[in-house]
Specification:
The chain is α+β, with helices and mostly antiparallel strands and 770 residues long. Helix 7 packs parallel to helix 8. It is globular and about 80 Å long. The chain binds ligand MTE, hypoxanthine and dioxothiomolybdenum(VI) ion (MOS). The site of dioxothiomolybdenum(VI) ion has 10 residues, from loops.
């Protein structure tokens, strides 16, 4: 689609591209149905379709697979299992504990034992249901606390300790003990998991995958097929949402399709049915918490002992770094002087839980926010006062429990500003008056902060590459290692490159993620897509610009530093030339018009055994004030008003950033209110479709939903002075859960409440009636 010339001219004359709310590069194509997702790609002649065969037992010995009935069905071309894997039968994960297809045991209901391949999708799916498994059941562990007791772990426990928490607790004026359970979350990306694998000549492979990590798909497919990485190319133009659920999980789908495609020497596509997607793929990790805290009369914490039992499911997947990030965020915004945090990475017979927006951060933060609320209610103080009292300091009380100094702390002014702009104090009084008069409907309010560490917890992932190609007509293509999942990464990268070259946004096109262009790229995750790839692309563009500047300087007898690139023009103190003309001249003078760029995040390091060091380049901050109402007879509840103040540094694209804040908040609200995953006592996930698993609907968006951006630039040298925005706002939704607890507490005459998450109507009612 070409924008009209007048539009191009307007953009060219306008401000720089960054800092403006340029529309998403795919917005028009997406609303027109013209944006291509994997299942829209025209199928190559001879394409076959695969469907997975699922275990229906949570734990047991797999003694046999009877596919005879399926093989007789119309259109069926074959059934493939572990025996058909030519390379390593285990996925190329960190821990190497996950079989591609179950080998001689099954470990959860939904584990994939093999695939059926047929001429059509429906033939394959129908046949997959006819495959019979012979399984000798074994006892299953479904609960993380039980797993911790049995020492059933996917990875060894980790303890972080500072000072003397026992002494701190024993010597404190007040003490509390508590426990809490917080549920997981299904990603519910609109586009389900899908992979399409095509054999090329001479044992090379082309893979289309809806994935946040094309490089990992390439690695996994080549590993399974017993081929070098270089034999496999993976492409992803965009995802219909990933949210962490396509950081590793998309690899399984691609590998299953590749194993079948390899046996049949035909292109094979595998698109999971939504129910199968629920049953097979990992979710946000559910957590169980036990804590003991000591505090003074003002609510200041004197000592804390915290146990985090992470439900990892049957294999390690990303659970190590997720559990680490939970430990790193168990302080949220608060200084914990004397503290011990024990993290159990529990192995249970469920789906292998995985990355999900926040990556353990939300699960770390929610418990300290629960503790803040508990302390306040114990002392009869306003929870906001207890929170403010415990915030990190500037000159002192400024080192985290993992020994990182918090250098960019804006918590106190940010929280105070939101307290004012949301009229928190007046509303608290108004709510108290309302609650005094209203016997059934009770209201609640909470203002909670967020401090979220930006960088991959696995330090080596914090690197990125990009390619910038300038063609002879002056148009520009950018390719970088990141992936587009709706978050606007490609839009921001195009803005950055446009400004670096001084050309209009529309002159820059970002192409599909492709492992044959930028190799070994990290997952697009940890919110650092723009920080990493935006910088790499900026460096690539800068090299092209510098070559052009040298060329112009030589021609016009000036210094390269005097050559200005802006508004599609290249100027020296005495000359002007249109960008297109300059590019053409430069090409004819054999100036290299393309370049690569590489970026690695500075300053970060940490010891993964003691979890100490500086894992994060900087922190992103925010705060949310949420007001809710509950019906004390039914437990039904609504979010009435939300005010957010969030820090994105100097925004590269305010509209996209505000969209990320809104989307993240609502997704977090879903996690903590209606989205309940229920496994029955056999380990069967009973909520495996939208009929029983409730994500927020448009009607759940609060009518009053105000978002303000913090005005200051990132204090660290990050691209354009910006800060990462993808995940941090998710955790602002903890204010919803705390506001619901506040309302439940009002219903109980001010008494403290235990309320597990999600705060479904049942859980709210239980809290009110406890
Ligand atoms: N926004 C949309 N629309 N779709 C998504 O899948 N994923 C989130 C966040 N925002 C996601 C999203 C997650 S989990 C992360 S880590 C970041 O986007 C990744 O992109 P970024 O690093 O470019 O912000
Ligand atoms: N976030 C997301 N994905 C990751 C991380 C992280 O911190 N570390 C490794 N993979
Ligand atoms: Mo996001 S959970 O880091 O993909």
């Amino acid at each position: 689609m070409n924008a009209p010339d007048t539009f191009l001219a307007q953009t060219a004359a306008a401000k720089p591209a960054t800092g403006t709310s340029h529309y998403h590069e795919s917005a028009r194509a997406q609303v027109a149905g013209a944006a291509t997702y994997i299942d829209d790609i025209p199928e190559v002649k001879g394409t076959l379709h695969a469907a997975p065969i699922l275990s229906n037992v949570a734990h047991g010995m797999l003694k046999g697979i009877d596919a005879s009935e399926a093989l007789k069905m119309e259109g069926v071309r074959g059934v493939f299992t572990s025996r058909d894997v030519p390379g390593d039968k285990f996925l190329a994960t960190f821990v190497h504990d996950e079989p591609i297809f179950a080998v001689d045991k099954v470990e959860f209901i939904g584990q994939v034992v093999g695939v059926v391949v047929a001429d059509t999708v429906m033939q394959a799916r129908r046949a997959a249901r006819k495959v019979k498994l012979d399984v000798d059941p074994l006892p299953a562990i479904l609960d993380p606390r039980e797993a911790a007791r049995e020492r059933s772990f996917v990875l060894p426990p980790v303890t972080v300790r500072r000072g003397d928490p026992e002494q701190g607790i024993a010597g404190a004026r007040h003490r509390l003990q508590g426990s809490l359970d917080v549920g997981g979350q299904e990603h519910f990306y609109l586009e389900g998991q899908v992979g399409y694998v095509l054999p090329l000549e001479q044992d090379q492979w082309w893979v289309y995958s809806s994935t946040q990590h094309p490089g990992e798909i390439q690695h996994w497919v080549s590993h399974a097929l017993g081929l070098p990485n270089s034999a496999v190319t993976v492409e992803c133009r965009r995802m219909g949402g990933g949210f962490g659920g396509k950081e590793t999980q998309s690899g399984h789908i691609a590998v299953w399709a590749a194993v079948a495609a390899n046996r049949l020497r035909r292109p094979v596509k595998l698109r999971l049915d939504r129910d199968d997607d629920f049953m097979i793929t990992g979710k946000r990790h559910p957590f169980a918490y036990d804590y003991e805290v000591g505090f003074d009369d003002d609510g200041l914490i004197c000592g804390l002992k915290l146990v985090l039992s992470t439900n990892c499911g049957f294999s390690a997947d990303l659970s190590g770094p997720v559990a680490d990030r939970a430990v790193f965020h168990a302080d949220n915004a608060y200084f914990l002087g004397d503290v011990e945090i024990v993290s159990y990475r529990c192995k249970t017979n469920t789906q292998s839980h995985t990355a999900f927006r926040g990556f353990g951060g939300p699960q770390g933060m929610i418990v300290i926010e629960a503790i803040m609320g508990d302390i306040a209610r114990e002392l009869g103080l306003d929870p906001l006062d207890v929170r403010k009292r415990n915030l990190y300091g500037i000159e002192e009380r400024n080192v985290t429990h993992y020994e990182m100094k918090v250098e960019d702390n804006i918590l106190a002014p940010l929280v105070s500003r939101l307290e004012e702009t949301s009229s928190y104090r007046e509303r608290r009084e108004r709510i108290a008056r309302w609650n005094a008069r209203s016997p059934v409907i009770k209201r609640g309010i909470a203002l909670t902060p967020v401090k979220f560490g930006i960088s991959f917890t696995a330090t080596f992932f914090n690197q990125a590459g990009a390619l910038v190609h300038v063609y002879t007509d002056g148009s520009v293509q950018v390719n970088h290692g990141g992936t587009e999942m709706g978050q606007g990464l490609n839009t921001k990268v195009a803005q950055i490159v446009a400004d670096e070259l001084g050309v209009p946004f529309d002159a820059v096109r970002v192409t599909a993620a492709d492992t044959s262009k930028v190799p070994n790229a990290s997952a697009t995750a940890a919110s650092s897509g723009t920080d990493l790839n935006g910088r790499a692309a900026q460096f690539a563009a800068r090299q092209v610009r510098e070559r052009l500047a040298a060329f112009v300087a030589e021609r016009n007898h000036c210094e390269a530093s005097q050559v200005i690139f802006a508004h599609g023009q290249v100027s020296t103190p005495t000359t002007h030339i249109a960008w297109e003309q300059l590019v053409d001249d430069a090409y004819k003078s054999r100036v290299q018009l393309w370049s690569d760029g590489f970026y690695k995040t500075p300053k970060i390091h940490y010891d993964k055994h003691t979890l100490t060091g500086r894992p994060f380049y900087y922190f992103a901050y925010g705060a949310a004030c949420t007001e809710v109402a509950i019906d004390t007879l039914t437990g039904e509840n609504r979010v009435l008003k939300v005010d957010i103040l969030h820090d994105v540094g100097h925004s590269i694209n305010p509209a996209i950033d505000i969209g990320q804040i809104e989307g993240g908040f609502i997704q977090g609200m879903g996690w903590l209110t209606t989205e309940q995953l229920v496994w029955n006592d056999k380990g069967h996930l009973a909520t495996h479709a939208p009929s029983t698993y409730k994500i927020p609907a448009t009607g759940d968006v609060p009518e009053h939903f105000r978002i303000e951006l913090w005005p200051e630039a990132n204090r660290e040298d990050n691209v354009g002075g910006s800060k990462a925005v993808g995940e941090p706002p998710f955790m602002l939704a903890i204010s919803v859960w705390e506001a619901l607890r506040d309302a439940a507490c009002a219903a109980r005459g001010g008494h403290a409440v235990r309320m597990d998450a999600p705060a479904t109507a049942e859980n709210v009612l239980r809290a009110v009636k406890a």
